[in-house]
Design a protein that fits this description.
This is DUF1203 domain-containing protein. It holds the Pfam family DUF1203. InterPro entries: DUF1203. This protein is mostly beta strands. 10% of the residues lie in helices and 38% in strands. A 6-stranded antiparallel β-sheet has the order 7-1-11-10-8-9, with helices on one face. A hairpin with a 7-residue loop joins strand 5 and strand 6. It starts with a strand and ends with a strand.
Length: 154
């Protein structure tokens, strides 16, 4: 089954780009600079920040539907990122980590979920999207629980 993965749009975060630390703090955000050993997964471009790049750690509502599954959590966005990842049948490297995939129906209720890592992520995506009651899948990093990306049928 074909699938489409998209990153977050940049525009909801653009007002934070370039703010000083006090300005970021007023929005509950922090700026971090990636070093050689850091793993800051950008949720816009769906790639790890490169050494020297800055990311903003922000609280983001990734499940805004008014259901018991409404949720928000911390995510990294690369400062000044402008183009969201959008690809069909291409799993970004950062989504080959230990992932929790959560399948939702059209009423935004979770109907299935499982974890996978590495080469097992794509078959899990395909299995979840093969269910007729699944409208979309949210990918989360299993260890910290952070939202990673949106997955829909391609």
């Amino acid at each position: 089954m074909s699938y489409r993965i998209t990153g977050l749009p940049a525009h909801p975060f653009a007002h934070l780009f370039g703010l000083d630390d006090a300005g970021l703090s007023r929005h509950g955000a922090q700026r971090l600079t990636a070093g050689e050993q850091d793993r800051f997964p950008d949720r816009i471009e769906l790639r790890l920040a490169r050494p020297g790049e800055t990311v903003l750690l922000v609280n983001h509502e990734h499940q805004s539907a008014d259901t018991p599954y409404r949720a928000r959590h911390a995510v990294f966005v690369r400062e000044y990122a402008d183009t969201a990842f959008d690809a069909v049948d291409r799993l970004p490297a950062m989504l080959r980590s230990l992932m929790s995939l959560r399948a939702f129906d059209a009423q935004h209720m979770m109907v299935d979920a499982d974890v996978a890592e590495g080469d097992a992520v794509e078959p899990l995506i395909e299995r979840l999207l093969a269910r007729p009651d699944v409208a979309y899948v949210h990918a989360h990093y299993a260890r910290r629980g952070c939202y990673a990306a949106l997955i829909r049928r391609g």
